[in-house]
Amino acid sequence: MTTSNPANATWTGMVPVDDTALAVTDTGGPGAPVVYLNGQFGIQPQWRRVIAELGTGWRHITYDMRARGKSQRSADYSFETNVRDVDAVLAARGVHRPLLVGWSYGAAVAAHWASRNPDRTVGAVLVDGAYPHDWLDEAMEQRIRKLFRRMSWFWPLLRPFGMAPRMTADQQADSNIELGVISRERELGPVLNNITVPARYVVASGTSFGSRSDEQERMRASLDTVIAGNPNIRIGAKVAGNHGAILRKDFRAIAVAVREVAALDRGGRLKA
Hints:
- The chain is an alpha/beta fold.
- The protein is built from 11 helices and 8 strands.
- It has an 8-stranded mixed sheet, with helices on both faces.
- Mean pLDDT is 91; it is low at 1-6 and 267-272.
């Protein structure tokens, strides 16, 4: 796990990409680079407990996705753009082989990037996301659109604090619906099967905002097939925290998974 930028000082700034610029923080230092990929509308500070638990022996790189946190707006919020933005951040910070840690939407981004770039990836920690499950249907799509439109009055109150995306209700709904499409078993299953680097899931429990009954537990159960088909992928931990609280309450389990994946670099790879 090498990097071309061993500077010890923390760097915070904007990385230009396409029609926007991403707010990035890089702690620097010679430690193994870990890149954190936020939840769909998450922001960098949500990783602070994980980062503190891992400590200064690692190089921590966080950033806000387009129109989230301190990053600028864009004309394109597609999933593929978010996958490509990983490359832009790595190039700007001179990192060649990171360990990716993604939560929720960020877990799907991490899975895709790791699957496509095995020689450039140490491994991945997928935090309660990247489940190959067909949870999107017409009724769910309508439910999503209704939810985001209902919440649209609330977002302007949070935006000054960086706690809500600078996206319209329809743009947020479109992003969530697209996640449902790329999460379908026939779409995400082959991506996960193609991962040839160590990957560990940290799986939450129960429900969270927007979910009903056992919807999320059914999604999590899809990992049984994934693990049976790819020996590089394992469940690192099943934790008590729910989807929304996992970074806050179960940061130690995430840090343990990061250390495990790092220890498996090179010597621990298995061929799927």
